[in-house]
Design a protein that fits this description.
The chain has an 8-stranded antiparallel β-sheet, with no helix packed on it. The chain is globular and about 50 Å long. With 326 residues, it is an all-beta fold. 1% of the residues lie in helices and 40% in strands. It has one domain: Jelly Rolls, CATH 2.60.120. The chain has 1 helix and 24 strands. A hairpin with a 2-residue loop joins strand 8 and strand 9. The two termini are 19 Å apart.
């Protein structure tokens, strides 16, 4: 996730509706052509058209087994899907929907809780437990997130009230936590790291919010900065030092021409992959140390969804780089 050094918790909460001053693109660069895929016209997209629906249960459009690329669903709205079975792990499920105005989808996850995060646009979420209109920001770079928590087995529907991009993270859950909207002002803002390691974090559904196993947060990294750094891991259940958590990174770039680099590796290097990620790509972190670097000139956003046997975020840093936290 977001590992590292000096933390500045700005408290309370996400600075409602305010855009954070990541570096803006300058110059007279040509406009980025939009790919032929379902989605909101006001959300920046990468210039390369995608192919078929991307799923961790089927063929991947990537040499790396850890990276999935967003694609156009066949007549639908889903651009990415990860199932525990397809990913080869036990806990985390994930999907991304691009919904044009008025589009409507229904979901129910027996035995699994869900967190719906509006990445851009607005939508209405309805269920037997209530109905909420959520989403204020046009893109993930424009202020704190709106989200909703749905307990296991609760059927719900999502209706786009504007062109919207929506992410849904799921994990095994038990009854108890209440269905609810998570307003932007509830997203605790933290500035973590310093210098070229500084980034901004919105905590959406972490330990301070009731849930069974899901942990959800988002990170904004200025171009040229390192994030989830120093490299850290959470693949061993060893309380209180470390918790075992599966994790996904869903990446968006302010400028769709840009890219970021993500590395995932184990101490013995039995797993050691470094991948270039583009706008809309997803990276699986099943185990090992991990970190991200945003290319200069290209501000990066990523959404983290984590889950494991214990709902705590406890990490171990790579000893070679731990000195950077001081």
């Amino acid at each position: 996730m977001v590992g590292c050094g000096r933390r500045r918790d700005l408290g309370g909460r996400g600075g409602a509706g305010r855009a954070y001053p990541l570096r803006e693109r300058t110059g007279d660069a040509a406009p980025v052509p939009a790919p032929a895929r379902v989605g909101a016209s006001h959300l920046r997209t990468s210039p390369a058209p995608r192919r078929e629906h991307a799923s961790a249960a089927g063929p991947r459009s990537s040499v790396s087994g850890l990276r999935l690329a967003s694609v156009v669903a066949d007549g639908g709205h889903r651009t990415l899907e990860v199932t525990p079975e397809g990913a080869g792990w036990q806990y985390v499920g994930f999907e991304v929907l691009r919904l044009p105005l008025g589009a409507h989808v229904e979901r129910v996850y027996p035995g699994r809780e869900a967190c719906v995060v509006v990445l851009g646009g607005s939508c209405e979420i309805g269920s037997a437990a209530g109905r909420w209109r959520i989403g204020e920001r046009p893109t993930p770079f424009d202020g704190p997130p709106a989200a909703a928590y749905l307990p296991p087995g609760l059927a719900f529907e999502i209706t786009a009230r504007d062109d919207a991009e929506v992410a849904i993270g799921t994990a095994p859950g038990e009854p108890g936590a209440t269905a609810r909207a998570l307003a932007p002002e509830e997203a605790r803002l933290e500035v973590r790291g310093s210098g070229a390691m500084e980034r901004r974090i919105h905590h959406i559904l972490m330990e301070d919010q009731p849930a069974s196993s899901l942990l959800v947060t988002e990170v904004l990294t200025p171009g040229g900065h390192w994030s989830s750094y120093p490299p850290h891991k959470h693949d061993r259940d060893d309380p209180p030092r470390e918790s075992a958590l599966e994790e996904i990174y869903y990446h968006r770039l302010r400028d769709g021409r840009g890219f970021a680099i993500q590395r995932v590796y184990t101490e013995d290097r039995s797993l050691d992959e470094t991948v270039a990620v583009r706008d809309g790509d997803l990276v699986l972190v099943p185990r090992g140390y991990h970190m991200v670097s945003a290319a200069p000139g290209y501000d990066l956003y990523y959404l983290n969804v984590m889950a494991g046997p214990r709902r705590e975020w406890q990490v171990t840093f790579d000893a070679d780089h731990d000195w950077l936290r001081s």
